[in-house]
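Q: Given only this backbone (288 positions), what sequence would you predict?
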């Protein structure tokens, strides 16, 4: 019977050798630990001996991950800003990079008398839930076009006891209450920005498992949805309200151009601790 440490070393080597995975330092070991904890239902000690049944269960999970299936889909859980969220196939997996966008939103909401916040393309709700947890009393809305992510977002809100957040299904701002128009302090969006022909260049663990609609809006350059948000957001933002857009670094200049052409003020690109993304911040066009 292998010890926990022996099993983890073997699993780490298997994951590192997989051509279906996007590798970065420490990723294989970290995911092996997540999968082992899920297999055992606990956080094991390094010297603990695995039973044959536990070892087989762990090996099956590692084999699934080695095909490219994301660990979050295997376990059904992911962590975001200290919150444990449910996630399933058919919904975009929250990225740790988006924690920075949530932090940026919280900074701009704290201290306001009646803060209001909208997260578009919300998925399973990570940004909206993080904001609701950090700014009690804020009016928080998450919107997504697809039914499965919205159902998961509502489930996450119930589990976390975050009653102040509402998740709505619809196209961008369309399902929001009419009385919110012109009164939103901050709008965030992590849009599908991959060009339709670029999808095939994504790692297998992304393009082979996550929903296509969460990766691309099917426009040639991936800017179609961003252009719509830039055009529609001013009608919903209060004067000097903020629009925050998360994209990859290679898209930040194009997004900044879209925002400036739409008349937004103070457009700039910001970055957090995770280098794979940028958050474009901009104020509502004035006059509007």
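A: Predicted residues:
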């Amino acid at each position: 019977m292998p010890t926990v440490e022996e099993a983890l070393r073997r699993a780490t080597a298997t994951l590192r050798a997989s051509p279906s995975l996007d590798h970065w330092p420490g990723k294989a070991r970290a995911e092996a630990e997540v999968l082992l904890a899920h297999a055992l239902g606990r956080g094991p000690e390094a010297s603990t001996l695995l039973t044959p049944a536990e070892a087989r269960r762990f090996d099956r999970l590692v084999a699934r991950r080695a095909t490219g299936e994301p660990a979050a889909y295997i376990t059904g859980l992911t962590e975001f800003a200290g919150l444990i969220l449910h996630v399933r196939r058919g919904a975009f997996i929250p990225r740790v990079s988006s924690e920075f966008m949530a932090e940026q939103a919280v900074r701009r909401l704290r201290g306001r008398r009646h803060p209001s916040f909208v997260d578009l393309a919300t998925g399973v709700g990570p940004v909206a839930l993080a904001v609701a947890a950090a700014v009690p009393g804020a009016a928080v809305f998450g919107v997504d076009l697809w039914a499965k992510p919205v159902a998961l977002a509502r489930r996450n809100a119930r589990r976390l006891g975050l009653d102040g957040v509402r998740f709505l299904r619809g196209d961008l701002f369309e399902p929001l209450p009419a009385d919110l128009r012109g009164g939103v302090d901050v709008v965030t969006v992590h849009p599908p920005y991959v060009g339709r022909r670029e999808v095939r260049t994504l790692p297998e663990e992304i393009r082979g498992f996550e929903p296509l609609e969460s990766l691309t809006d099917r426009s040639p350059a991936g800017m179609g949805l961003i252009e719509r948000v830039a055009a529609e957001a001013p009608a919903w933002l209060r004067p000097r309200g903020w629009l925050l857009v998360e994209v990859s670094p290679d898209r930040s200049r194009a997004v900044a151009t879209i925002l400036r052409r739409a008349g937004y003020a103070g457009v700039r690109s910001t970055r957090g601790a995770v280098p794979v993304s940028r958050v474009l911040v901009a104020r509502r066009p004035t006059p509007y």
